[in-house]
Amino acid sequence: MLNKLYRFLSKPYMVIIVMIIAPILSIADRNYGYFFGLFIALFLLWKSGWEWAKFGFGQKISLNTVFMGLLLAVFIFIVVDICIQPFIEIYFGQVDLSSLEDIRGDFASLLPMLFIVWTFVAFGEEFLFSGYYMKHLAEFMGDTNKTWFASAIILSVYFGISHNYQGTSGMIAVGLASTLFFFTFYKYRTNLALLVFAHGFYDTIGLTLIYLNQDRIFYNWALNMISN
Question: 114-119: long-range contacts (C-beta < 8 A, 24 or more apart)?
Fold first, then answer.
């Protein structure tokens, strides 16, 4: 039974079907679509004999990978969160971060949130959206540089829309940040670990600023710049 299911889910076009079903499930609860896709991807990984390379983990993790991930996270944070997002929020409204309000000034709440972020966001989202969706979609369309490029664009929009619970500004900002992440995977398509570390460090920076109640500093700076 499981082997038949694996053969069925392994068909190249199935990634598209999963990508269609996931957001439909998210209408009821945004976590349903995420865990549905993650379950499919993990099932395929398990039945493949844990062939991590099929999902972009084709290189050993090294200190250089960790360091590059940190640099990438800082770069994306500066470009998107400091230089672009504040102006997006001025015109489209503030990003809805109400789900993270509990960590403000509460270190006991910050620690488990960091664990969740590194596990289900940094690893989980990169494994699902980059390693499964983007990689398998690119391979389904022909596995060329052009199809990888197209897949990166498609997933940037797809990932941004999946954050609709953060409002219009959240979708735009997440879409822009994810574009940089997905195009990094386009370039380093056998080193998904780089994206995992970059995503983890990126979100850690954001969570730390919320914990310190300094997450609006760049928005206020942009607002003052426009006002003057």
Answer: 114/204, 114/207, 117/200, 117/203, 117/204, 117/207, 118/200, 118/204
For the chain, where are the alpha helices, taking DSSP H only? 2-9, 14-26, 30-47, 63-76, 85-92, 107-116, 124-125, 135-140, 145-161, 167-187, 192-211, 217-227
> Tens digits of per-residue pLDDT, 119-134?
999 999 999 999 999 9
Q: Which two tokens stand for residue 93?
A: 């409204």
* C-alpha to C-alpha distance for 137 and 117, rounded to whole angstroms: 25
Q: What is the dihedral of CA 156, 176, 53, 34, to 10 degrees?
A: -60
pLDDT tens sequence across 59-117: 999 999 999 999 999 999 999 999 999 999 999 999 999 999 999 999 999 999 999 99
Q: Are 59 and 65 in contact (CB under 8 A)?
A: yes
pTM of the model: 0.95
Residues 6+ apart with CB under 8 A from 30: 162, 165
